[in-house]
Amino acid sequence: MSAATLAVKDSPADLGLEPYRSSQVTSARFQHALRDGLTFHQAIRRRQFWSLYGMWLASQIVTSLYTQHVVLFALGQGISFILASVALGMIGFSSIIGRFATGVFLDRAGIGRALVLCYVASLLAGVVLLVTRDVAFLLLFALIFGLSFGGRSVIEVPIITNFFGLTQLAVIVGALETSFGVGGLIGPYLGGYAYDLTGGYSQVFLLCCLLSGISLVIAISLQRSVVAEG
Fold first, then answer.
1. Helix axes 202-229, 135-164, angle to 10 degrees
2. Which of 76, 86, 172, 229 is least surrounded, with the fewest CB atoms within 10 Å of its CB?
3. What is the pLDDT of residues 65-85, one digit of tens each?
4. Nearest to 143 by CA among 83, 187, 96
5. Residue 182 backbone phi and psi in degrees, to 5
6. Distance CA 141, CA 135 (A)
7. How many other CB atoms sit within 10 Å of the CB of residue 214?
8. Are the C-beta atoms of 163 and 225 separated by less than 8 Å?
9. The CATH number of the domain covering residues in 64-229
């Protein structure tokens, strides 16, 4: 894989290629986005950069906390290990559906609406988990959260491109996605610490709902920016 990156080109245009069914208008728009996009140093001075970073950091804390602790939580509710594992696997399965569904919705309704919808689903999943006491609610949580998780991954590059263009897209994406690493480091430890402190998961999942609510508020503010700049 490392060797393959040496052959990667920045754009199909570097090989004399154009997008499938492209037109002169599409090509002109692409060149405009490439020419007028922001550099990394310009991007980090924008509010949208840090809004995205904070939103993804909070959501990744929630994601890593769920994936690391949901089985332990289920066992504490008397749910069998097999069914708890099935619920964890369902997050991954429903995320596949979420990727396709969000892609279709994004093309029809726009980036802003798709972004907000995904974070509404994330918050709803947290609320469901708070009241989960049996397998049915656990599976419902897994379904909703998986849809949200898959959908959010589809939106990452389009929304970055919307705000910052294509000039240094790879660098900006790489910088923003460090939030996933930081959130993935914090989440499991934070969940374990809160459980040891309180003796249960109620406070942990309340925290997840709070972080999901913060992410939703940021998503709504970003939606307004997308509309304003679009």
1. 30
2. 229
3. 999 999 999 999 999 999 999
4. 96
5. -65, -45
6. 10
7. 18
8. yes
9. 1.20.1250.20
